[in-house]
């Protein structure tokens, strides 16, 4: 099927013998625009990508035995009991099991193998895709159905409660609820979703800066606290309830840092809604301008770009020209830069990046062209 699938089946056979009964895939995502807006009840617009996590399951035995093939590590625990966090990849699995048990699902005992093609720390949501894949395979094995958004929210709770990242719902919804060939406009408060067809001649390019980041390092939660402080001072439930005009009028009430954080969030909420309209009408010039503005705002106001992603985004924007744009994507502090461009610009942009950009280790960057994929589901 794919190299990942073959690796998963071979790893399952080696760890547990024989074959799985169920295989599920859940994609990573690249966020086109709307960053750090999700936990402010705002808007984001991701696409699901071809890089994904696959999990294979066979019911039987007592307890859950888990083999994480990418780490050559395993875990074993009672799948019917509440779980305790212990650190590392195990928390993503145990956290999901814990949430399923809390939701009244009778998680079957069995063997579970996990393999993925999303590199960690690259801003493409390897952790959300793992959570969503594990939740979906265990629900399927239990004979239970859950709609994609409820499944995503369950996975998000697992990350918040077990891993300790107070993330929003963007990554899990993107992994669970996207549709092939479409970007997904998410209203992170109402959970209204709008699928937006990608224009046929538009390419999504992801370039890895080579600066690896993690969300657990405190900066992410700190940004969230700063946004919550700004909302409290402004007397609103979340920054979603403030637009840029209101913010300008209220700026005297906010400390400088809270004002800057709020300006980014309010700006990206507006830009994301405008971007959805631009993409839906195939207006890549408008879409590109919004992406460039969003990148600037992430650096100037939100303090989450780094010199390498600034250089890379500038280089890509120059090579793309007016018809499209590029910006750092994901939680920030490195990771990937996403570019949207006409298909006929891909070769020139790739060439420009490879000629000039080097990762902190001095390597040429990884570049891939992504075709927006379907959200999580069974394979085969
Ligand atoms: C990370 C988080 F997990 C998401 O919830 C979101 O906040 C994103 O950073 C930034 O937009 O991926």
Automatic annotation (TrEMBL):
Instruction: Please state what class of enzyme this protein is.
Output: transferase
Q: What is its EC number?
A: 2.7.1.6
Residues covered by the GHMP kinase N-terminal domain = 92-176
GO CC annotations? Answer: cytosol
Query: What is a GO molecular function of this protein?
Result: galactokinase activity
Question: What are the Galactokinase N-terminal domain coordinates in residue numbering?
Answer: 12-59
| All copies of domain GHMP kinase C-terminal, residue ranges | 276-357
GO biological process terms, semicolon-separated: galactose metabolic process
In terms of Pfam families, this protein maps to: GalKase_gal_bdg, GHMP_kinases_C, GHMP_kinases_N
| Alphabetical list of Gene3D superfamilies matching this protein | 3.30.230.10, GHMP kinase, C-terminal domain
Keywords of the record, alphabetical order, are:
ATP-binding, Carbohydrate metabolism, Cytoplasm, Galactose metabolism, Kinase, Magnesium, Metal-binding, Nucleotide-binding, Transferase
Q: Which family does it belong to?
A: Belongs to the GHMP kinase family. GalK subfamily.
| NCBIfam families noted in UniProt | gal_kin
The protein, known as: Galactokinase
Organism of origin: Novosphingobium aromaticivorans (strain ATCC 700278 / DSM 12444 / CCUG 56034 / CIP 105152 / NBRC 16084 / F199)
């Amino acid at each position: 099927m794919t190299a990942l699938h073959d690796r998963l089946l071979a790893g399952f056979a080696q760890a547990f013998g024989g074959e799985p009964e169920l295989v599920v895939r859940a994609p990573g995502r690249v966020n086109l625009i709307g960053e750090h807006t999700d936990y402010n009840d705002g808007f984001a617009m991701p696409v699901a990508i071809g890089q994904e996590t696959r999990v294979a399951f066979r019911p039987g035995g007592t307890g859950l035995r888990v083999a994480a093939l990418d780490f050559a590590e395993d875990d074993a625990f009672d799948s019917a009991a509440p779980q305790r966090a212990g650190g590392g990849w195990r928390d993503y699995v145990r956290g999901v099991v814990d949430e399923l048990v809390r939701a009244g699902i009778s998680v079957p005992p069995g063997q579970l193998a996990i393999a993925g093609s999303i590199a960690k720390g690259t801003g493409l949501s390897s952790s959300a895709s793992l959570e969503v894949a594990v939740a979906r395979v265990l629900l399927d094995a239990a004979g239970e159905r859950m709609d994609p958004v409820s499944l995503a929210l369950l996975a998000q709770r697992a990350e918040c409660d077990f891993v300790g990242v107070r993330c929003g719902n963007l990554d899990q919804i993107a992994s669970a609820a996207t549709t092939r060939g479409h970007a997904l406009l998410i209203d992170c408060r109402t959970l209204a979703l709008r699928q937006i067809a990608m224009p046929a001649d538009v390419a999504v390019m992801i370039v890895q800066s080579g600066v690896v980041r993690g969300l657990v390092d405190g900066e992410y939660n700190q940004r969230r606290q700063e946004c919550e402080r700004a909302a409290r001072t402004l007397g609103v439930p979340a920054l979603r309830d403030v637009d840029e005009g209101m913010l300008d009028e209220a700026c005297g009430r906010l400390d400088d840092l809270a004002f800057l954080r709020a300006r980014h969030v309010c700006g990206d909420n507006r830009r994301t809604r405008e971007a959805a309209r631009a993409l839906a009408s195939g207006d890549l010039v408008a879409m590109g301008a919004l992406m460039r503005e969003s990148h600037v705002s992430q650096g100037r106001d939100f303090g989450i770009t780094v010199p390498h992603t600034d250089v890379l985004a500038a280089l890509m924007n120059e090579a793309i020209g007016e018809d499209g744009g590029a910006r750092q994507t994901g939680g920030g502090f490195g990771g990937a830069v996403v570019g949207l461009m006409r298909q006929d610009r891909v070769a020139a942009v790739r060439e420009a990046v490879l000629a000039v950009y080097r990762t902190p280790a001095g390597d040429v960057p990884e570049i891939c062209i992504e075709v927006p994929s379907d959200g999580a589901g069974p394979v085969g």
